[in-house]
What does this fold into?
Amino acid sequence: MNWDSFVPDLIVGIATGGLVGLVVLGAERRISGRARRREVEDAQSNAVERARALLPHKVRSKTDVEVLHLDMAQFDRLREVIRSVPSGEPRELVPGYSWAAEASRLADDIEALADALDGRISDYTRDTPSDMNTAKWMRKTISELASNQGSTHSAWEWQWNRDVHPRYALMIGNDTELTAMVNRYLWKCDLLIAHREAFQEADEIWRTRSWEVTRPDPVGYKPSLIQALLRPWKRRRALARARWDADQAAGAIVIAAHAAA
It folds into this structure.
């Protein structure tokens, strides 16, 4: 054995092995990362497909106009779909997904606020005569306001029921805690409507634009060699632009809702 070259060869071997190991590890991580992003993108795309059927054309409350709660059956199913999406970033932006996910969260917020309002309103039920139906009238008023997007306490006054005694009308009108709760409830209802509309806008723009980009060529059309070579790049660029435009248009709807609050 040539001991003079043994140590240098050993150092070179270790360095080479380490370098190869780092290259392999980096490649594995990149492959794993791409696979993860693809998995997230596929799951988000599936959620959007489901949301098309689950997000209602209008945000429906329960049949009884005096009930502040939403009809949660549709939102419960949407929540299950959203929760099944793995964490992480998708390979490409999935138009509509973020707005559907936020709509699901807002529905849960509204349910919690409706529970809180029911509790606050019940305080007046205990303090006022039963024949006044104060709680029934209060819920009906708030429910009607929630159906008019953009309503806030600063822009409306209680439409007093003739059966409500002025004493209790004054108590309700001066209840700052109730006012704050109603305002927050109405604001969340507005945001839910805005996010539902944002989802529909993003989804519609994306489906229309992506179909235009990927539709088959007319019968008999033969692209030139240069056109054929450039087509994949142009399609990727056009699809990326369509995703961006869809998301921006949806975002403008939500920004407008925030501005109106």
Summary: Residues 3-54 form the longest helix (52 residues). The radius of gyration is 29 Å. The chain has a mean pLDDT of 78. The chain has seven helices and no strands.
